[in-house]
Amino acid sequence: MDSRITQLRIEACNEAPMHADGEYVLYWMTGFRRVGFNFSLQRAVEWARELRKPLVVLEALRCDYPWSSDRLHRFVLDGMAANARRLGERAVTYYAYIEGRRAKGRGLLKALASHACVVVTDDYPAFFLPRMVAAAAAQVPVTLEKVDSNGLLPLRAAERVFETAYSFRRFLQKNLVEHLSEGPRRDPLQGVQLQRLDALPADIVARWPNSAAALLEDPQPSLAQLPIDHAVPATELMGGESAASAVLERFLTERLSSYAEDRNHPDEGATSGLSPYLHFGHISSHQVFAELMARENWDTDRLAGAANGKRSGWWGVSESAEALLDQLVTWRELGFNMSARREDYDRYETLPAWAQKTLAEHAGDPRPYVYGLEDLEGAATHDRIWNAAQTELVREGRLHNYMRMLWGKKILEWSPTPQEALPVMIELNNKYALDGRDPNSYSGIFWCLGRYDRPWGPERPIFGKVRYMSSENTARKLRLSAYLERYAAP
Asked: Closest Cα partner for 386 from 253, 287, 284, 483?
């Protein structure tokens, strides 16, 4: 596999010069919080080798990001502890900064960059990260590059927004092959000799303490003193790169064979469980792809060749592997395509024209039930199945894939208007879901309102031509008795 990074994945964010006489190369880790299969780290290593400079990796955790809570903080901190362990064994300076007070971390990046030759960061196209990188680019005194390590297809390889999974799948089938040999290195630091940094600038560390050593001693520091939402507790799910790899290994070994048949049934527990790790960058889709295809003994000779947009058959692997790839590559990267090309990806106005039209035509339809945010958040509706899904979200920080669709459809049905349904879905999902605030989760929310779908008949009250789902049909189609016993009130 060619480990060089295609220029499509690298973008300069400012016009500041590279300073060859700087003290080190700085990698500002923001979206891809891992060591392995990371194009951004790989690019930073390339700069460090070329300039014969030490490499500093800055991973910071601010406390004032939207929906900051014990749940999200704990998961990120697990990953930081894992990075401290792994990078602590290498000739790299790992700088972990945990902000203890709002705005306390302001100025840290600029201060570090003032001693750097060049700064490399992650090109993650959603949440507050694009605005944060743009603001940093205007402040740092050296070249700032962002590197795309989001998916198998470089974000800039697609020059338009795709409106359906079918059209995007056809595009992938025509264009993805040339990028499959361009994967990142499994370990960008393996076999690499780098200069060692004697010490970080003392004035910087004094003002912004490095918590790397503390994380090695106590991987789970107390969150009680931080100004975050303590009402959303951490879950039992452990974050970090090693935890993510263990989840992947367990899925491939124990669940993959039944994935195609059982993934929609909540009782079967056949889903991959990878979405939180993909969201926080604790695992790469390249790693998932590589390990899946190794199990399938796959090579590109098995590709079907014809770009027909069909969900199965093109990859030439087992039915379950095809089903997983459609989720991992087609649907996941379809969401990244939208968020990378439209800053308003999270706005109601980005729905297809047909969906906006039909929802507007039925906006005045009577709602048999109307629930506000408080009742929905507390799973206090008349619908036992929906309440179970909401309880799973609040308690576990996740929603079963199929139940997420029903969950969103019912919020649409129970809201005074579709415009009011959208922010409720976003609020509940982003507050509680470990995989929320992600292009892929926005795809799921907006799909409930018609994005990436087509008009459906018969036309129904409230929904119009937007695809309808009901709890009654869900109960008939799915095996969920154990799911209801676990999450639904009697």
From this structure: 483
